[in-house]
Write a structure and sequence with these properties.
246 residues, alpha/beta, Undecaprenyl pyrophosphate synthetase, six-stranded parallel β-sheet, 6 strands, binds 3-methylbut-3-enyl trihydrogen diphosphate, binds magnesium ion
Length: 246
């Protein structure tokens, strides 16, 4: 079946967020070290980014490294950071050819200098692209994001620039790392785990969650279309009754 033709382009999510999980288990299944899984995960990143851009999705956010991931064995962390540098350098041309802008969210300054540099270069070299924004969540944690926003707002209150009574959802959203980006309508997590692992908590308050058993290295365009088609068959009620939606 041609899954792509079943995607309703008039009901496309503007923003899709993905928790790319299962690289390690995929590698283990193939009798290979975990890093082999991460390397093969890059192919899935490419496929997903291409599929999203081709459809007309405006924002794609990929959870690439959580703040908690620093607790992994040092060798794995180092390998992931080097893979990031390598991938960023290799993919910039493709991003430009496809008119895709790169952005990043997370506590980026705490990344190793080489990774940070490659990231900033990628962001700078693609800043004028307009077809889609690819957001990498790196050293990201939703609780960090929320705390940072709280600190920023507290600073404004302290400086007398705003009254505490005027803190509302709009101001809070605008103070998060995702400011200017609409909340994701759809969140996908691969590998069969049904948890959020400290990803985008505020922003996904009303997102549709889609869990698939596929390990990330095997995720491809069809798997992505499947998730979108599933999303499009749901009724988003936002607290109302089905009848009210008419
Ligand atoms: C996702 O795959 C990649 C990162 C978190 C960096 P994992 O490395 O978590 O793979 P599993 O979950 O151990 O299989
Ligand atoms: C979540 O995956 C983080 C990323 C995908 C980057 P993990 O594999 O780190 O999550 P847990 O440990 O299973 O919750
Ligand atoms: Mg995992």
């Amino acid at each position: 079946m041609d899954l792509k033709s079943h995607v309703d382009l008039n009901k496309l999510p503007k923003h899709i967020a993905v928790i790319m999980d299962g690289n390690g288990r995929w590698a283990k299944e193939h009798g290979k070290p975990r890093v082999f899984g991460h390397r093969n995960g890059v192919t899935a990143v490419r496929e997903t980014t291409e599929a999203a851009a081709e459809l007309g999705v405006e924002y794609l956010t990929l959870y690439a490294f959580s703040t908690e991931n620093w607790n992994r064995p040092r060798l794995e962390v180092n390998a992931l950071m080097s893979l990031l540098v390598e991938t960023l350098r290799n993919e910039i041309n493709t991003l430009n050819e496809n008119n895709i802008r790169l952005q990043a969210i997370g506590d980026l300054e705490k990344l190793p200098p080489k990774t940070h540099k490659a990231l900033l270069e990628g962001i700078q070299n693609t800043q004028h692209n307009q077809r889609m924004t690819l957001v990498l969540a790196l050293n990201y944690s939703a609780k960090w994001d929320i705390l940072e926003a709280t600190r920023k707002i507290s600073g404004l209150v302290k400086a007398g620039q705003i009254d505490a009574e005027h803190i509302n959802e709009e101001l809070f959203s605008a103070s998060l790392s995702t400011h200017g980006i609409p909340d994701p309508e759809l969140l996908i997590r691969t590998s069969g785990e049904s948890r959020l692992s400290n990803f985008l908590l505020w922003q996904i308050a009303y997102s549709e969650l889609y869990f698939t058993d596929i390990f990330w290295p095997e995720f491809n365009k069809d798997a992505f279309y499947r998730a979108i088609i599933d999303f499009q068959n749901r009724e988003r009620r936002f607290g109302k009754t089905s009848e009210q939606l008419g």
